[in-house]
Amino acid sequence: MLESMSELREACMQCRKCALCETRTNVVFGVGNEKAEILFIGEAPGENEDLQGEPFVGRGGKLLDLYLGGIGLDRKENIYIANMLKCRPPQNRDPKPGEMDECIGWLRNLVHIMKPKIIVCVGRIAAQRLISPDFRVTKDHGVFYNKNGTLMMGTFHPAALLRDPRKKGDCLEDFLKLQDKIKELGISI
Ligand code: URA
Description:
Blueprint: H1 5-13, H2 20-23, E1 31-32, E2 38-42, H3 47-52, H4 59-70, E3 80-83, H5 97-114, E4 118-122, H6 124-130, H7 137-140, E5 144-147, E6 150-155, H8 158-163, H9 168-184
Parallel strand pairs: 2-3, 2-4, 4-6
Antiparallel strand pairs: 1-3, 5-6
């Protein structure tokens, strides 16, 4: 395991563990405050993220920023955001299990360095891999699970909210629960 974020980022930028390295424009390592105690994990970079090298910068990202802002969080100040996959799958298809197997080491190392108190899984792909293979966003969103001392919660992916705005109220409730949990744990933001 690498012990510093700069070493980890540097190594990740050179990654050629899977075929996605052939088609990527940029490795999307993550963004935010490396000392934050709250980590958000999405699925994989899309087109805009691949071009800009930063997670959640498209329409969905703007929506995520609104939810974050609603509970006083800023992506650069109080949290860190990364994805299950660091490179864009062509045509934004779902990540393949083998790609996630290759890529998850980067995330494990990130968690080792950051030691976040809370991990928020943004969407099904992250929640099923990190919380439980049976995780159903519609049923299990907003519930905190204690995994080896880290609290983990899954919520809606912003792309799902853009497709079905009726889910926005449920997502807001999840963020309000997150706000309560941040206060309960005494996390300073
Ligand atoms: N969707 C994700 O899950 N992550 C991104 O970075 C962009 C879109």
